[in-house]
Each structure stands twice: as C-alpha cells, then as structure tokens.
Amino acid sequence: MVTVAEPADVRRQVRRAERRRRRLAVLLVAPLAVFLLLTFIAPIMEMLRRSVVDTDLRSAWPRTAAALADWDGKDLPPEAAFAALGQDMKQSVAARTAAMVARRLNYADTGARTLIMTTGRKVAGLDAPPPSWREAFIAIDPAWGERRTWAMLQQASGPLTSFYTLYALDLRRDADGSIVAAPAGEAIFVDILLRTLSIAGLVTVICAVLGFPVAYLLANAPARVGNLLMILVLVPFWTSLLVRIAAWFVLLQDQGLVNEALVTLGVVEKPLRLIYNRTGVIIAMVHVLLPFMIMPLYGVMKTVPPQLYRASLSLGAPPTTSFLRVYLPQTKPGIFAGVLLVFIMSVGYYITPALVGGANDQMISWFIAFYTTDTANWGLAAALGLVLLVATGVLYTAYQRLSGARGVAFG
C-alpha cells in the first residue's frame, strides 16, 4: 500500500528544502563576504570616514574647543576662551601635541603653523598666568586679535567637519562661516577632477573604436586563427605593467623607434614629443586597457547568430544597413560592459600617468597618493577619494539610464 502525502505536508517539505538550500548558499558565500568586508569594504569605509572627522584640535585643546562651541563669531571670543587656549597650549607644548594642531590648522592657513608653534613656545615660558590672556596673546602676535584666526580654530574644533570635502571642491569657509570659492591660486582640485574624467573618457572612446573590430575578427575568424589572435590579446595580461610602461619609454622617446621611423619615412622633419605629456599617457593607457574592452565585446559577439546578418543581406538590405540595424544592436551589452569597465579603471589610474605623463597630466589618484604618503593629510586624501567615488557613481547612474533608454529605442 502506497501512502500519499497531504498537500500541506508537501508544501512544508518544499519550504523546508528551500530553507536548507538558502542556508547552504549563505554558508558557501559567507567566507568570501567576510573576506571582502575585512580587506576591502572596511578599509575603504574607514578611509572615507576621515573625510568628515576632525579631532586633532579637540583632542589636544579640549578646553578651547569647549569654549568656542557657543561663540557666535561676530566679535573676538571672551576672555575665558583666551584663558582656555593658554592652558591648553601650555599643556600641549609639554605633551608635544602642539605640532599636531599646528599641522591641522596649517591646512586652512599656510601661516598657522608658525603662529601656533611660536605662540606655544612663548606661552610655555610664562611662569604665571598673565592678568589678561587676551592682551598677552595679542602682544605675542597681532593675529590673535583677528576674528578670522578664532574662526579657524572654531571650524577645526570637530568632531565632524566639512573642511576637507569643501577643500576638495575648491571651496572654503570665511570668518562668518559662509561657503566661498577658494582663491585663484589654490583652486586646483576641480580642474584635476575634470582632467581625470576627460582622460578616462578619451581612453575609453579610443579603446572602443580599436577594440570593436578586433573583437569582431576574434568572434568570426576560423577557430585556428581566432585562437592565435586570442593569445595575442591575452599576452599583455602575462606581462608586468611596469615592463609594458618601460617599453613605451623605448618606443616613444625622442630617439625611440617611433620617432626614428617617422623621420626616416619623411613623415616629420624632427622627432615629435610623445612622452612626458598627454599623448604618452593616452597611448600607454590605451595599450594597457584595450584587452578589457575586447574581452566583453568578444563574449557578446560569440553569442550573436550570424544567420541574422546573412538573412538581412539576402532580403536586400545593404551591408552597412544590416550592420547598423541588425548586428550592432545585438552587441550593445558588450559595448556597455566594456565602456563601463575601461572608464572605471581609467579614472583610478596612478602608475602610468605618474611615469609617462608630465606635471599637467597627473590624475586625481596621484594627488590622493601624495596627500596620503607625502604630507600625511589623510583627511584631504579621503575627501578627494570621496569626490571621485561620488562623481563616478553619478556618471555610472547617468550611463545606466542612457544605455537603458537606448536599449528601449533599439528594441
């Protein structure tokens, strides 16, 4: 006799099996998720946190930060604020933390380091508190009698700040707390961001133009020829990036192979400048990133049925019309994937522009590395990274919307 399960029992068994499948999937993915969290996501979040955290002054001068918390900024702060600064400065000099505050304030005003260190030494030399800390500070340096000096201290009192983010956008706060444009000589980061995006966009366009016919040849060539060409495309992945860049030094220098060939053939009269400028950066980046454009295109083109293109030709459509109306729309996913991959990789390039480019060709990643390692200004480095991340996210969103709209139009 065969027992037939009730429908309710069957549903419970199905749900139980589904839960087991989900738990197994979670257990399989969990090690990778934890690894990415600890080695990738957490460090990035910690770095970005530094763009809005400002605790140097608060930790070294807690009395001053507390005294300036309620200051309205309309006039000089009260005597209590001067007294708090005197006590904090005396203790910070003894604890050797005054340099940390001086370095932070020097980001906002290049003369602040000298002001803090000079005043700190003189305050530390006082045997007893003066009758008036206000008069004592102004006597040491008239800058202590200016409202902008105290506004700078208040804006650096933390614990959260918009200073680094505004600085990365070429903006500042004046003594009244209003956001104003940076002076002409200091407004560089917006231009650097635009330069980064323009170089990345140009490299992406060139890679798309060069990569499409190569991918088409790979996808439609006989297997024997296609395999050989695929090996040639993959060879750069097996070669060190520094080796490839060094090769471009040999090729592009004034007496390099490229210029020697151009002069010998009579194309130019004298060697062209192809290195340590934007031209060298574009050439080297295209060479490095071209395989990342070819591979997505090749993957999609291999799935396109060739019968459709031949059918359109047999129905009387010209080759150009058949290509543009039948074949090209089916390769859009590969084009979009390749463009997105190459562009996102381009905006973060550091080594190639640093070695092949000139002073006016460095991208924003070079400045992030500079402020991280050379000046230890992690706040500004994090803010530049945040600006780049937001700009890339905005462009990615716009690109997705445009690609989706075009997909509907082609459909």
UniProtKB/TrEMBL annotation:
Task: Please provide the Gene Ontology terms (biological process) for this protein.
Answer: transmembrane transport
Q: How does it sit in the membrane?
A: Multi-pass membrane protein
Q: Where in the cell is it found?
A: Cell membrane
Give every ABC transmembrane type-1 domain span: 193-399
Gene Ontology annotations for the cellular component aspect, listed alphabetically? plasma membrane
Give yes or no: UniProt keyword Transcription regulation: no
Which residues are listed as membrane-spanning?
A: 24-45, 199-219, 231-251, 280-300, 335-356, 376-399
Tell me the keywords, alphabetical order. Answer: Cell membrane, Membrane, Transmembrane, Transmembrane helix, Transport
Q: Name one Pfam family in it.
A: BPD_transp_1
Presence of the UniProt keyword Ribonucleoprotein in the record: no
Entry similarity comment = Belongs to the binding-protein-dependent transport system permease family. CysTW subfamily.
Database matches in PANTHER family? ABC TRANSPORTER PERMEASE PROTEIN (PTHR42929:SF5), INNER MEMBRANE ABC TRANSPORTER PERMEASE PROTEIN YDCU-RELATED-RELATED (PTHR42929)
Protein name from the UniProt record = ABC transporter permease
